[in-house]
Amino acid sequence: MRPIAALLILACLTAPAPAQQDDQPTPSGQAVPRFVSLKFDVANGRSGPSRAHPVAWRYVRAGLPMEVVAETPDWRRVRDPGGELTWMHRSILSGRRTVVTIDETPLRARADEDASAEAIAETGVVLTLERCRTGWCRVEGQGYRGWARAEALWGVYANERGGQPEAENDGSPALSGPPARDTALR
């Protein structure tokens, strides 16, 4: 019986620490999870938190929203709109909030289904997020501005979609999508 207890204690002591918790301070002092966007047209997502790790994904879209799910002082573990997890250096991420459309999305003159459509955003369009309220988000892109249903956007929090804030982040994307695949395990 003693060898089993010793193994259990050893396993607990050598187990990796869990990801950042909401009540623990982060290296940046900002909340985790949170949404950010890519600063540059070309950005590398790596399989680990250093330049020595191989590039797992090459992103070629400035403004693409990312969700920070963990961080070190210089590196951020991010989830992209497709659910992929990679590491990015903090210098290539911006605090500017953006969203990406999940489906073809009308941008309405007011936060109301009956309001006229100012424009139609195709699936996959990156828009700048201005604000959200009662399930609608004010967005802007390519010279057009309007209100879009929050559920049609990836890059918004549960409380911005009109629901209650999530009690605990379970690691799933902010909006439904494919399950996350960890590129560090490939």
TrEMBL record:
A Pfam family: SH3_4
Signal sequence residues: 1-21
Keyword Signal set for record: yes
Origin superkingdom: Bacteria
UniProt keyword annotation of Disulfide bond present: no
Keyword terms, alphabetized: Signal
Region (Disordered): 161-186
Official protein name in the record: SH3-like domain-containing protein
